[in-house]
Design brief:
Blueprint lengths: L10 E5 L15 H12 L5 E7 H4 L8 H16 L3 E8 L1 E2 L2 E2 L17 H18 L5 E7 L13 H18 L4 E3 L5 H4 L7 H6 L4 E3 L8 H5 L4 H4 L1 H11 L8 E3 L14 H12 L7 E5 L29 H15 L9 E5 L14 H11 L5 E4 L6 H6 L4 E3 L2
Parallel strand pairs: 1-2, 1-10, 2-3, 3-6, 6-7, 8-9, 11-12, 11-13
Antiparallel strand pairs: 4-5
């Protein structure tokens, strides 16, 4: 069985967005359309996809996991295998492309807190176990994730960091029990790193699950518009968030999966998308302990579907007719280059020290003082690590990361 992280190899993948009916395709899967999509994806040279299960379709009742949806997922996994692609599966959606999805048994007079209600958590555990059992005999399923950007749901499901700790521990244990030999992760959008007081924390991202997952989006905190779509800040954002995530990890070599990055219009104009894609990936490739980059996303959203924010319609590497876009060609060219000659990470002997806590995270966000200090070094051609002040007195930790010099903003 292939493992997700492979020594000395940077993996490339896409977040699979079906070209026909978007993720609503789970209501009536067209396997022929899926196979066409996967053939187009494989032609880019990627080796894996990230697949998303719509939670209301897969678990329409707290005690019922939809067997038809599970069969469709297995069919998708098998079709990916036929195309030469590994699969990581996100179970609880949760949040996708600016929409939130709740099963009816969590709403109306059943309304429950998705993170703290024992009934909902027990149902999620039941679902994770059932889905894991269905995937256990599929060798190309290399990863299992709780769900996509679950922290998007905290506005309507308030919780404390301690309650989120308990939630993640319980669900990660269930997912690991269901698929004990696969990578098990959770993901949060970058508010976990950037937003003061947010209940999902950088420590949770950097210490729970099999590896850290990051989603460096240049629309967050208006990064691309604030600095420019091809600016140092925009094109080094992925690299920066890799290093920021490492600053919160207790394991000096914990892997950081760049699980989502993309070129959202109008933040990144169409004419700049290819250059932005290439620069972003080349900068990420200078980091150590990055096993994979998974671009968002495979296909554009069809404009026949209503009510998406404008940026969601154009994020694909492939358009809805199956034509590879300039950003998709740039991605394919880089994959071919790095397959022939794997990139060599840059030494990061100097680290910028971050002295902050959960109520001062905004300093590390685009526009923040720490962010701007790191980017000033990047603009000068320096590849800096980031270390939290708590680790500055741990010489073994610094040595393991190759850090010999500390500097402050």
């Amino acid at each position: 069985m292939t493992t997700f992280a492979q020594q000395g190899r940077l993996r490339f993948g896409v977040n699979y967005t079906p070209s026909k009916h978007w993720f609503h395709s789970w209501y009536a899967m067209d396997l022929d359309a899926t196979r066409r999509d996967l053939a187009q994806i494989a032609a880019l040279g990627v080796d894996h996809i990230r697949a998303f299960c719509l939670w209301p379709v897969f678990q329409p009742n707290a005690t019922f996991v939809n067997p038809r949806a599970v069969d469709d997922l297995r069919a998708l996994v098998d079709a990916a295998a036929d195309a030469g692609l590994d699969v990581t599966v996100d179970a609880i959606q949760g949040h996708l492309s600016s929409f939130d999805f709740y099963p009816s048994w969590t709403l109306t007079w059943h309304e429950s807190n998705l993170f703290t209600d024992p009934r909902v958590r027990a149902a999620k555990v039941r679902y994770l176990r059932a889905l894991g059992a269905a995937l256990a005999d599929r060798p190309n399923v290399v990863g299992y994730q709780l769900g996509n950007e679950l922290n998007n749901l905290v506005q309507h499901n308030p919780a404390s960091p301690g309650q989120i700790d308990e939630y993640l521990d319980e669900l990660l244990a269930a997912a690991t029990e269901a698929l004990p030999d696969r990578l098990v992760t959770h993901s949060a959008y970058d508010a976990a790193f950037y937003t003061d007081g947010h209940p999902f924390t950088p420590q949770q991202s950097a210490r729970k699950g099999g590896m850290t997952t990051i989603h460096p989006w240049v629309f967050s905190y208006d990064c691309a518009r604030r600095y420019g779509p091809l600016s140092v800040a925009a094109t080094h954002l992925g690299e920066y968030l890799v290093e920021l995530a490492k600053a919160y990890a207790t394991d000096p070599h914990r892997p950081v999966w760049v699980q989502e990055a993309g070129a959202p219009q109008p933040h990144v104009p169409a004419g700049d998308a290819a250059a932005f894609t290439e620069a972003t990936i080349r900068n990420i490739a200078t980091c150590t302990d990055v096993p994979a980059v998974t671009w968002w996303c495979s296909h554009d959203v069809d404009r026949s579907l209503a009510d998406f924010p404008e940026l969601e319609y154009t994020l694909g590497l492939i358009d809805t007719d199956g034509t590879t876009k300039p950003a998709g060609q740039a991605y394919a060219d880089l994959i071919r280059e790095y397959r022939a000659e794997p990139p060599t990470p840059a030494p990061r002997t100097t680290a910028l020290v971050y002295d902050g806590d959960l109520d001062t995270r905004s300093a590390t966000a685009p526009g923040g003082t720490f962010f701007d200090a790191w980017m000033a070094h990047a603009a000068a051609g320096h590849r800096l690590a980031i270390v939290h002040t708590d680790d500055t007195h741990r010489p073994d930790h610094l040595a393991a990361r190759g850090i010999t010099t500390l500097t402050t903003p």
